[in-house]
Amino acid sequence: MSLTSADAIERSVHKTNEWLQDIDSEPGIGDREAAWRILRTYLQLIREQLNLDEAAQLSAQLPLIIRGAFWEGFDPGDDSGKVRDRQAFLARFAERAQLDGAGHAERAAKVVTSVLRNHVSEGEVEDVLSQLPAEVRGALHA
């Protein structure tokens, strides 16, 4: 989405609200604030696992506001966010998204993966997931 008019911003707000509603409509998520924390944290954790080209390709399909959250705090020289195992990923997700443990984190991650599949091309989602370690990928599938 190019930012050529104020309408682009309004469309991005509308699309962001659709994503949040999709997440918030799942039982146990909580509210819109929780949905935003979950979405933002998920995307940033995924971004940390991807190479720069794949991160850029994914972000190109995100609404402007969500794209900003995706790139927020990004440091291309910092590899400390990479995780290789399921439990480390879920623990980091739970901590950053303020979730009650790995079980809630795994459920929330599966919800966001499903929402991502509904709003981003299937090929791009598969490209992203293929870059994740198998254990991490397993925590994201419903």
Compile the SSE list and pairings.
Layout: H1 6-24, H2 32-49, H3 52-59, H4 64-71, H5 86-97, H6 101-119, H7 122-130, H8 134-140
Write structural notes for this entry.
With 142 residues, the protein is mainly alpha-helical. The chain has a single domain, classed as Uncharacterized conserved protein DUF2267 (Globin-like), CATH 1.10.490. It is 70% helix and 0% strand. The protein is built from eight helices and no strands. Helix 5 crosses helix 8. The longest helix is centred in the first third of the chain and has 19 residues. The termini are far apart.
Throw out a few tags for this protein.
single chain, 142 residues, mainly alpha
What's the quick description here?
With 142 residues, the protein is mainly α.
How many beta-strand runs? 0
N→C terminal distance? 29 Å
Oligomer: single chain
- Named at the architecture level, the CATH assignment is Orthogonal Bundle
